[in-house]
Amino acid sequence: MAIKAPATAHPRTAGRASARRRLAARAGLLALCALGFTTDADAASNKVRISSLSDVTFGTLSDLSSDAAQSQSLCLYSDTATNGYNVTATGGGPGGSFQLTSGLSSLAYEVQWSNASGRNSGVQLSPNVPLTGQTSAASHQVCSNGPATSASLIVLLRSASLSSATAGTYSGTLTLLVGAE
Amino acid sequence: MDRLRSGGLVGVIKMTFARLSCLPLAGLAAAFAGSPVQAAPTQGTLGTTSTGSVSISASVPNRIQLTGLMDVAFTNQDPSVAAANAQSVCVWSNTSTKGYYVTASGSGTGSAFTLANGSATVPYSVEWAGSSAQTSGTALTAATALHGLTSTATNPTCSSGPASSASLVVRISTANLQAMQAATTYTGTLTLVVAPE
What we know:
The complex is a heterodimer. By secondary structure, chain A is of the alpha+beta class. In chain A, 18% of the residues lie in helices and 38% in strands. The longest helix of chain A has 24 residues, at 11-34. Chain B is mostly beta strands. Chain B has two domains: 10-61, no CATH class; 62-196, Sandwich (Immunoglobulin-like). Chain B is built from two helices and 14 strands. In chain B, strand 8 (114-117) and strand 9 form a beta hairpin. Chains A and B meet through strand 1, strand 2, strand 3, strand 10 and strand 11 of A and strand 4 of B.
């Protein structure tokens, strides 16, 4: 039986090997990054936040022959590399449709979105369908500094719906889901 | 001749909603079903997704509209034959029952249903039916409401759905025709007011 003593590297040789390992590790990390892998720090930064939302109150609509619209500016923050986001709206009607109800009666409404604040019109949203390709100008997650708002939400009641609606008080909930992109 | 009348106004009710925060779409339904309700709006939180919600409320007041009216002309009327003119009109009401009432007023003294030529007058009668294409209906009394009518109209001007929803009938009896002077034109105005109920 042959017995080999543990190899003992020369200190200078061992130092060169260690340096080679560190270099290889760095190269590997660089390669991973080049291939699109993300680190924990990168993943944690893909965050969005929607805030400064207000209830939409039309009040009593005396003129049923005209469209009624309510718009509001809100804070939409995204900290992705492009400040990009998508938004999905879901109403309280069947299948997430944009409907208000008053007892058994319903009243359809429309939703528009603009990625700029202070707008009275925007891109028409369909229930449960993401509107992609939006970007935010917000520099703070609740817009407490920088722009005070960064997007607009517009809710419309069309005259065609109003003039065929049964008299009553209608209400419903609109849910907005935003995702980073 | 259109008449639009508004009814009582109703207040705005704040609605309740389920609180959602940073939920994926697949979780929305479950969140709505299981979360306690509270007042909207809900502000989103910071995350890879963020969810906010708002309540929307609107009140639609009682409204009614009368359209599709046409002038009534009796020309060269044979005095031995009673004159009658029936027309279909559109009455739309947005109350839950689509109910309404109608009040007719003539241009005669005390809103009487009379036509006039100078000091000469001739009475006529007015009938109303709550459905279209009728040649007779309930006799109206001047300035007195006929209640309990309902409309089948689904559009304020009947531009969609039923093209008309009520009937107006104007008559001049033979006795009154025979009291009129020949080759003389008698005119008057009939005003109809409809109101939701």
